[in-house]
Design a protein that fits this description.
With about 90 residues, this protein is α+β, with helices and mostly antiparallel strands. The protein has one domain: Immunoglobulin-like, CATH 2.60.40.2000. Helices cover about 15% and strands about 55% of the residues. A hairpin with a 3-residue loop joins strand 1 and strand 2. The relative contact order is 0.19. The model has no long low-confidence stretch (mean pLDDT about 90).
Length: about 90
């Protein structure tokens, strides 16, 4: 983590600010294993019904499952529906 990011982290902790907004972290809301809302993404890298790779700040978010579809895609957020079996991160 660079100096600028360390400073931002300290400020968010000191003033109790939301880290997802200040540090560009993704915010994930999982409803059971059938729906996933991802806020603060940076684009879709790969998409099949079994695997979706999403660019996030400092890496990728991998969503694996069956029958995955992108229900909604906006500039900063997206919704994935289907049977979600695994979420993992590949960090830079």
């Amino acid at each position: 983590m660079g100096r600028k990011e360390k400073t931002k982290t300290k400020l968010t902790e000191m003033f109790n600010l939301p880290k997802d907004v200040i540090l560009n972290f993704p915010r994930l809301v999982l409803v059971g294993n059938l729906e996933l809302l991802i806020e603060n993404h940076r684009g879709i890298i790969y998409y099949t019904p079994e695997l979706i790779k999403i660019r996030i700040y400092h890496g990728l978010l991998l969503v694996a499952g069956k029958g995955l579809i992108i229900e909604e895609l906006q500039k900063d957020d997206l919704i994935i529906n289907g049977e979600i079996n695994d979420l993992s991160f590949e960090l830079d």
